[in-house]
Prior knowledge:
The protein is of the alpha+beta class. The chain has 2 domains: about 1-40, Single Sheet (N-terminal domain of TfIIb); about 40-140, K homology (KH) domain (GMP Synthetase, Chain A, domain 3, 2-Layer Sandwich). The chain has helices spanning about 40-65, 105-120, 120-125, and strands at about 5, 15-20, 25, 70-80, 90-100, 130-140. The chain is elongated, with a radius of gyration of 19 Å.
Amino acid sequence: MECTVRWTGLSGMTFLAETGSGHVLAMDGAPDGGGRNLAPRPMEVVLAGTGGCTAYDVVLILRKSRQDIRGCDVTLQSERAESDPKVFTKIHFHFTVTGRNLKPNLVERAIKLSHEKYCSASIMLEKSATITHSYEIVDDLATETQATPAN
């Protein structure tokens, strides 16, 4: 895996990252640090990437467990050290998993497997941060209705 990060110019603190898969991601600094708030901060990108990594795992594991999963949101709340290096010191993941007749033990198992075995981002961050998890299951009882033509 590779990535190239390029500063966009002499003014401001905007950077463009081009990933090995050919995608471009913008990052910027806070206005008080010379940035213009045009894109997420680099550490926000790290947090978002970690959320994406674990959500991907949870969805995949639940699908393989033959669960009728319809949605998976994860909200990450973090704290960072006050002095440099301002590493993450605490990260809490809250999963909202939506589906039909989801088994709580399988949702819990999917989150645990992601945290302990599959999500390399959260496993790496665990070296500096205390990581906790919580979850809720939303039963998707929405039924598909057919529209009736108006008279």
